[in-house]
Design a protein that fits this description.
By secondary structure, this protein is mainly alpha-helical. Helix content is about 45%, strand content about 10%. It is built from 20 helices and twelve strands. The strands form five sheets. It has a three-stranded parallel sheet with strand order 1-2-3. Helix 2 links the parallel strand 2 and strand 3. The N and C termini lie far apart (about 75 Å). Bound molecules: glutamic acid. Glutamic acid (GLU) binds next to loops.
Amino acid sequence: MKVRVRLAPSPTGNLHIGTARTALFNWLYARKNNGSFLLRVEDTDKERSKDEFTSNILEGLQWLGLQWDEEPIIQSSRYEKHKEAISFLLKKGLAYRCYATEEELQLMREKQINESSPPRYDNRHRNLTKAQEELFINEGRNAVIRFRINDEEPIEWNDMVKGQIHWKGRDLGGDMVIARRAPADEIGEPLYNLAVVIDDSYMKITNVIRGEDHIANTAKQILLYKAFEIKLPRFAHTPLILNSEGRKLSKRDGVTSINDFKQMGYTPEAITNYMTLLGWSPPEGMEEKFTLEESSAVFDFDRVNKAGAKFDWDKIKWLNSQVIHSLPPEKLLQLLNKLWIKEGWEIPNNEWGVKLSGLIGPSLNLINEGIEHSRVFFESPEIDLNGIEQLNIKGAKQSLRSLFQNLEDSPWDGLNYEIAKQLINDSAKSEGIKKGILMKSLRVALLGTTQGPDLITSWSLLAIIGKDKERIRKCI
Ligand code: GLU
């Protein structure tokens, strides 16, 4: 049977790293098995769902390289199907209306707390007589719809990550609500567990892959599958991403949405690489740095860890630096240029941009560091105190003046290692000063300080700054 998996995000916030990791494992599994990766937007929480979050989630997945295969399903468009399913359960006597008010339920819970017993609904309206129901209706009470859960019923499945799992009906907290409160002749808004079962079955999902925080939902959903007599998918519950204290990574840990990572200068390649490593171990012989293509060729749930994984900033940063360092300068330029444009900086031409990208690329861990690392190439720097001291050394300005004159007479645009070396040697010699003094003064003229890249080994720097030879004149 062809593998069909899905991501079912609720558009109540931007694409979160946990959701992105679930998407990634679904995507990898689908690609490995020549299957399909589908999307279902679970927008049934009307108050909190927003179109802008849907766009953010879809764009984020695309940016990460996790393209889906069919038109996304919008869950709210299947509302009537969910209601039909509830109606079926009511007719079969597998579900019933519960008229207990919020106050009554609150009293019940308080009593349970006082007795130190776990919270559960006590199934009080499971077997109401017609007359009792009439009474509640006449009182003007609305009802939720609950699905019967037999306490003794075993719920078992062979999880693709966790192995054999055993639950019992009694672990689920009493008969579960499947539709919100509504007048007794209506069916209220269908709830998550019901909608998921109906939609996963409609979408012919073969494997439900999601975070382990959904295990209790899976137990409930299995009972619904049985009630509808539909074939169960296989389930895989993936380990959670934890913060440094070992708790689920949340908004409180600062950066959690894929947007945040993007803003900080992480590349999609490093994020997907790191997220894969966060719950999966590559087979022996495979390096820790890999592409989506490489991991999808060997991805398997046997190698997914059972325990949660702590988020390690050093590791993701290291992976990011590896990705950046392996980018051809032409590709890096495309990423850097977006940042430069935001700073109001314009590259004189493409070749210049490629050279600069090649020069600073090896020192970047985050794309965004490319702003500070290239500032000096776009903005004439203020000369600092050390720089001023340097320029006051006897002969320093004179040698710069001579260099400038020599530069005027030579093809500045084509400045290369050999030519630049010759120019510096000639200028120092003709003024009778040490080459070191000229080199240091030139660095002040170009960079505003005596610290920084060694001009002798980075002649290309000179060539790049070459677009701004005015800097030397200004300095003089
Ligand atoms: N909408 C649910 C969520 O975002 C989906 C869970 C599931 O995959 O069934 O957590």
